[in-house]
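Retro notes - structure team

What went well: the batch runner handled both jobs without manual restarts.
What didn't: labels got mixed up in the shared folder, which is why I'm recording both outputs here explicitly, each with its sequence directly above its tokens.

Job 1
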Amino acid sequence: MRRYQRRTVWIKTHFKAAVTVSAAVVLFCGACGDGKPGDERAYPPTSASGKSSNTAPTVANPLDVTKIEKSPCLMFPANALKGAGITPTNEGYADTLSRLGPACRLDGDTEHWRLSATLLTSDKQGLSRIYANQEANPNPNFKEVAPIEGYPAVQGVGTNSPSEGGCNVTVGLRDDLTLSVRVTGKQDRPCEFANTAAAVAVRAIKAAQ
């Protein structure tokens, strides 16, 4: 009976974790859909002025994510996280079944933050999808940011403001693939934190080529 109870708790805990990761990414990735009711769509990015370029930047050096798709938490090597000042309480929870794409979630230390990184393999248009949606339906909460590890990136806060501890960063890994990094919880500089985590992830993806 005790063994059954322990297994039941384990299943409930990990199911809840998987749902949390998917729900967090959905807040940022709505424009990944085609505009029909129920689609997950990514909020489009803008520049600091609230306007975007007409076209998404081209990814000059596309990355192969085959290894990462199988083991998404390879994006967050322990030593790299430590070097970046990111101290999670777990080694990462991998979700390879999400309809958005393979994801890894990290839970924070005493600051109670949560970090998720998702390869958006469900959408084949990369940053172009986001820029097209921004052109059609401008969102003032998003902006273009400096490239991360040489790869074009955009930043947004979804339905929260940075002061509330939430921020998203999306990086173009290929013209048809993006990486979405989302941080929620208590963070004084959530967007800076998300950028740092995204840089760790991109370096790991490059190392996995």
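Job 2
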Amino acid sequence: MQTRIFAHRGYKNAAPENTLPSFQAAVKYPIDGLEIDVHMTKDHELVVIHDEKVDRTSNGSGYVKNKTLAELKSLDFGSWFSKTYEHTQIMTLHEFLNWLSLIQFNKILLIELKTDHVDYPGIEEAVLNTLSSFPTAQWQLVLQSFNRKTVHRLRQLDGSIDLAKLTFLIAPRDVFDFLTKRIQQINPDFRFVFNRMLITCFKKSRFAPWVVDEPRDLINIFKKPLHAVITNQIELATQLRDSIQGSNQENHVKQ
């Protein structure tokens, strides 16, 4: 079994996170999936960004929820990382999916609905509706959230979609939802020893720990091996996996 490697917010060590340059950098490597984050704007557009505020990753300030898409598009989401990426714009979810279609992306798309700090009424329906506008997409899909209500709402709306519960510490309710197939995987914070012990004991289960960047941790994960890992160290992770588990040339994606 090859451990699946998910590129966390694209290749955020090489380009500004959750932007097109970051995703383009990630798919140059034999990854198995892209991980992205989705928020909703004041005018109910879905945008790809991690934080609730734009302050850290743009030249603007304030909450995503309080800005229109046009206001967000006017901001520079690249210069904070490097002048090379000056004038990089935020992407809508639709724009991101359209790009995936153009490059014939056929790996896994892991989308986090960011409802753990801000309530976005209707975001679950909006995400599913946007995804449905790409009926011929080749990618596999997993939706995830820290917010249990969001996960349950997604299950109510779609009985067949793969869902994952993000968590800092794996809770009995997470395990119950997994065993009853309400969710298909649990994605825990790798920093906690309890989580590490649990995913090691049940290494054949569908865990995708985040964010695993230390070489020794990646080596241990690939040697066990675990089902999947979410990482910022794309080049290192793919090299280590290939050296430990053997390479899989089919993992490359066309640009």
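One thing worth noting from job 2: The longest strand covers residues 33-40.
We'll revisit the folder naming next retro.
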